[in-house]
Write a structure and sequence with these properties.
heterodimer; A: 25% strand; B: 280 residues; alpha/beta; D-Maltodextrin-Binding Protein, domain 2; 5-stranded mixed β-sheet; 4-stranded mixed β-sheet
C-alpha cells in the first residue's frame, strides 16, 4: 500500500514543531515580560507557517514529478535531520541575534541604604551591566514593615529616578510598594543607576526596601 | 452599574442575615424604616469622643458614629447602618468571619492587619499617649519616668503592641483589659500607675472625668484610624475612601470634630484628604 505524500513529510515536520514548541515553553517559563512573550509565541507561529509552506511546496513538486520519471527519494533520517537542523539553527539565530531574550537580573540587583528606611531617605542600585545589555529595565520595588504596628507600607510612596552616565533623568516616577516600574535606559553608554526615595506620612515608620523582580528587556 | 451594586449589597445582607449573631446581643438600626439596603457596622460603645452607647436610650454618639452615618447618607449607593457593638480585641475577627461588613471603631490601620482585612482611610490620626491620676501629671515628662511602672491598655490593640514591642519593651509591667474604660477604672482605684492608648481617646476620658489627666507625651508610630472592611473588597474600599475625602474637604470633619472633642485643636488629627491610603 502506497503511503500518502505527507506521511514522509511528518518525519521532519513533527520533530521540528516539537522542538520549537519545547523551546518556546522554556522561554515563557523564564518569566519574560510582554514583548518577550510576544516574541516567543511569534517564533512558534513563524515556524508553523514555514512547515505549512513547505508542505504546500512539496505537494506541488510531487504532483509535477509524478508526471515525469520517478527519482529515488531521500532517506527518512535525512528528512528528520535536515528538519531538526534547520529548526535549531533558525530558532537560535532568530532568538539570540534578532530578538535578544529578556535577561532576569533580580539576583544581580544590589540595593544600598535600603534597610530601616525612614521618610525622605533614598536607596539606590546600579542597573546590572556596564552598559546594561538591553534598552529597558522592568522592576518591582517592595517595602516590608517588620513591626506589628504602623501604617507604613500601605501609606508609603516611592519616587523613582533614573541616573544615566551620572546624569539624573528629569522624568520621575511615583508609585506604591509592589507596583512595577519600567525605565527606558536608551542612551546609556557606561552605567545606569536607579534612585528610590521613600515618602511616608508617619516619621516613626522604618521599612526595608527590596527589589522582588528585575528584568532587562528590549 | 448601580443596579449591580444594589444587588450585590442585597446579597451580602442576605448572607449576613443567615449568619449567627455578632458580639452585641441586639443590633440597633439608626434610621427607622428606610428602604435603603442595610450594612452591618462594628462600632465601639465606651470611648468618649469616638463612640459611646447609652443602653437606656439605645443612642450612640461620637466621631465614629457621625462619620459612618454621614457616609451612609452621602456615598452611592446609600445604605442603612446596622450598628453592632464589638470589642476592640474582636474587630479583625468580626470582619474575617463575616459578622460585620464594616468596622468604624477607632481602628488603627496597620500593615500587619492588612494581611487579613482591608482599610479605607485614614479618617483620623492620633498617637499613643498616657493618662495618669490628677496631680501626678508632673511626674511623667519622658518615657524614662515610666520605667518600672504598671501600665494598663486594651487587649488586642496596637497600643498593647507598642507597649510590649516598642521603646518601653521589658521596662514596664503591662496590664491588659477589654476596654479603656476598665483601665481608667483601675487607674482610679490605684491598681495601675497609668493608662496608655491613643491620645485622642485619653483626651475623651479626661474631658469626662476630672480625676484623670493626659500628660503631654507621645511615642511610637501614628495611630491612623481607618474603616475596616473585608480583604479584597476594593469597590467598597474605593467608595469609603472617596467618602472620607469628601467628608474632610467639605468641612464635615471639622464640624464633627468640634462637636465631639470641643476646643481641641484639630491640627495633627486631620489627615490630608489628598493623600489617603490607596485601596489594594
Amino acid at each position: 500500500m502506497k503511503r500518502p505524500w505527507w506521511a514522509t513529510q511528518l518525519l521532519w515536520a513533527v520533530p521540528l514543531l516539537l522542538g520549537v514548541s519545547g523551546f518556546v515553553v522554556w522561554l515563557l517559563l523564564l518569566g519574560n515580560k510582554g514583548q518577550g512573550i510576544a516574541d516567543a509565541v511569534s517564533l512558534l507561529v513563524g515556524t508553523t507557517s514555514l512547515v505549512v509552506a513547505v508542505f504546500g511546496l512539496q505537494n506541488s513538486t510531487i504532483r509535477r514529478k509524478a508526471e515525469n520519471a520517478p527519482r529515488k527519494p531521500l532517506p527518512r533520517w535525512a528528512f528528520a535531520g535536515i528538519g531538526a537542523a534547520v529548526g535549531a539553527i533558525g530558532g537560535a539565530f532568530f532568538w539570540f541575534i534578532v530578538v535578544k531574550p529578556d535577561v532576569p537580573v533580580t539576583d544581580l540587583v544590589e540595593m544600598s541604604n535600603a534597610e530601616r528606611m525612614t521618610d525622605g531617605e533614598q536607596a539606590s542600585f546600579p542597573v546590572p551591566g556596564r552598559p546594561p545589555g538591553r534598552r529597558y529595565l522592568y522592576f518591582v520595588p517592595s517595602l516590608v514593615n517588620h513591626e506589628a504596628v504602623g501604617d507604613c507600607v500601605g501609606s508609603a510612596r516611592l519616587t523613582v529616578t533614573l541616573v544615566r552616565d551620572g546624569r539624573k533623568d528629569p522624568l520621575r516616577e511615583e508609585l506604591r510598594s509592589d507596583r512595577e516600574v519600567r525605565l527606558d535606559l536608551d542612551g546609556t553608554t557606561r552605567e545606569a543607576r536607579v534612585l528610590v526615595v521613600l515618602s511616608v506620612p508617619d516619621p516613626a515608620c522604618a521599612v526595608d526596601l527590596s527589589v522582588t523582580e528585575a528584568v532587562l528587556y528590549n | 452599574m448601580s443596579r449591580r451594586i444594589t444587588a450585590a449589597l442585597a446579597a451580602v445582607v442576605v448572607v449576613a442575615a443567615c449568619q449567627g449573631p455578632a458580639t452585641s446581643p441586639r443590633p440597633t438600626v439608626s434610621s427607622g424604616s428606610s428602604p435603603l439596603p442595610p450594612v452591618t457596622i462594628g462600632v465601639g460603645t465606651d470611648i468618649p469622643g469616638l463612640a459611646l452607647f447609652n443602653p437606656d436610650t439605645q443612642e450612640r454618639r461620637g466621631f465614629d458614629v457621625d462619620l459612618y452615618r454621614w457616609l451612609a447618607n452621602n456615598t452611592e449607593p446609600k445604605f442603612t447602618p446596622v450598628e453592632v457593638s464589638v470589642l476592640i480585641g474582636n474587630r479583625v475577627d468580626e470582619l474575617t468571619l463575616g459578622r460585620v461588613q464594616l468596622v468604624v471603631h477607632g481602628f488603627s490601620i496597620t500593615d500587619k492587619r492588612r494581611e487579613e482585612i482591608g482599610f479605607a482611610g485614614p479618617y483620623l490620626i492620633s498617637q499613643q499617649g498616657f493618662l495618669v491620676r490628677a496631680g501626678e501629671e508632673g511626674t511623667v515628662r519622658s518615657l524614662d519616668d515610666l520605667v518600672g511602672k504598671n501600665l494598663c491598655t486594651q487587649a488586642g490593640s496596637t497600643s498593647l503592641s507598642q507597649l510590649t514591642l516598642g521603646p518601653l519593651k521589658s521596662k514596664v509591667t503591662v496590664t491588659s483589659e477589654v476596654g479603656t474604660r476598665q483601665c481608667v477604672d483601675r487607674l482610679l482605684r490605684e491598681e495601675v500607675d497609668a493608662v496608655s492608648t491613643d491620645q485622642i481617646i485619653l483626651l475623651g476620658f479626661a474631658r469626662q472625668d476630672p480625676g484623670v489627666r493626659v500628660v503631654p507625651l507621645t511615642f511610637g508610630t501614628q495611630e491612623r484610624y481607618g474603616i475596616g472592611l473585608p480583604k479584597g473588597d476594593r469597590a467598597q474600599c474605593e467608595r469609603m475612601t472617596q467618602g472620607i475625602r469628601e467628608f474632610i474637604t467639605n468641612g464635615y470633619w471639622d464640624q464633627f470634630f468640634r462637636s465631639n472633642f470641643g476646643d481641641l485643636p484639630p491640627e495633627g488629627y486631620r489627615p490630608d484628604p489628598y493623600h489617603l491610603d490607596p485601596c489594594r
